[in-house]
Amino acid sequence: MWPCLRESVRLLVGLMLSLAFVSPALGEWHGGIGVLGDSYSDEYQFYPPDRSTARNWVEILARTRGLNFGNFSSQSRGEPRNQGFAFNWARSEAATGDLIRSGQHIGLAGQVARGEVGVVVIFIGGNDFVHALTLNASENQVDRVLERANANLDMVVDTVLAASPRVQLLIATVPDIADLPEFALKIRLGRLPSALASSYSQAIGRYNQHIRQMTMLRKRVSLLDLALATQLAPRPDRDHVIVAGRKLDLIHPANRADHVFLADARHINTLIQGMVANFVINALNARLDANIKPLTPLEILGQVPAESPAIADRNGDRRDQALASQPPPLRPTTPAN
Q1: Helix/strand/coil (H, E, C) string of 117-148?
Q2: Which residue, 40, 83, 96, 318, is the most exposed by fewest CB within 10 angstroms?
């Protein structure tokens, strides 16, 4: 009983802290929801063979709650918008510098200025550190990576806020990249020096602190503290984590429902993306009185594509299987751009 109680308290504290810097509700927002970010927010369905077996938080919220991310197109609009929802500018592999060079923020700011977008979610920064660590950038170099990421994020936020006095921003913190299987396994085997990995973890912590401070100092900017939620998630052992009452493998990537990371060793599965979706819902409800019903685990797992191998791996839960066999909800119709 006591371990369960401790886990419940940790999760409750995490939720309270994640909403601690969400500004008071200001009433219903006008316009759609725009997104700036990287592959965690870029629609999964366009990236076989691994991401296409899952769905991300944008796709989940559009299909289950009808949230407006703009007109959907399976045809590319060209860089950086490409396929998907018109208000979702997130680009696979993007770091903060890539976001700026490709003009994600400029394109979205234009939609904000025209009144098409009233809320912007920014989830960016992990790849700044992933790319550097992949190249074995030294501990001395990571400080420059952090400095650039902070400056780039500030520019993006300033650009979007300047586009309209009514736009609201939700900014997500970045979970520790040392937990990614592509790095975690190397650390365990001694192929990646633990001291170097630790320096990156500390730098990401400072990047997240920069985000938290920003949400405290700016009236129209609120926090999605995904990093804190990750830290507080119950771990029965070092290889597993408990999510929505399910024990998931944290270290071995696979395109299955009981593994946190997909087979590409970097991207999170549908269930974890659904938890991100619920963070967005909670923030919208707290900030804008949106009154959106949070997703249940069964709803989230129901978004796994029918052809995905994850469908066959749901711990024998027939309710999950029945939900997954239902046809997906129709996409909300929006006027063509």
Answers
A1: EEEEEEECCHHHHHHHHHCCCCHHHHHHHHHH
A2: 318
Which residues have a Cβ under 8 Å from the Cβ of 267 and sit 6 or more positions away?
Answer: 39, 40, 44, 50, 51, 54, 261
Q: Which residues contact 275 (CB under 8 A, 6 or more apart)?
A: 229, 243, 244, 300
Give the integer Cα–Cα distance in Å for 17 and 205: 16
pTM of the prediction? Answer: 0.85
Joined tokens for residue 4? 């369960």
Would you state the structure tokens that stand for residue 121, as one six-digit string?
Answer: 């979610």
d(CA 253, CA 232): 21
DSSP state for residue 259 in the 8-state scheme: B
Q: Which CATH class is domain 2-233+272-290?
A: alpha beta
* Segment 65-88, tens digit of pLDDT: 999 999 999 999 988 888 999 999
DSSP 55-97: --HHHHHHHHH------EESS---TTT-SEETTB---TT--HH
Q: What residue type is 8 in one-letter code? A: S
> How deeply is 79 buried, as exposed, middle or buried, from its count of CB atoms within 10 A (0-12, 13-18, 19+)?
exposed
How far apart CA 307 and CA 323 sit, in angstroms, is 14
| 102 membership: H or E segment, kind and range | helix 96-102
| Residue-range domain boundaries for the chain | 2-233+272-290
Backbone angles phi, psi at 75, to 5 degrees: -100, 140
Which residues pair with residue 37 across a beta bridge? 123
User: At 224, which helix (H) or strand (E)?
Assistant: strand 221-224
Token pair for 26: 């200001």
Q: Give residue-wise pLDDT tens across range 23-69.
A: 444 444 557 999 999 999 999 999 999 999 999 999 999 999 999 99
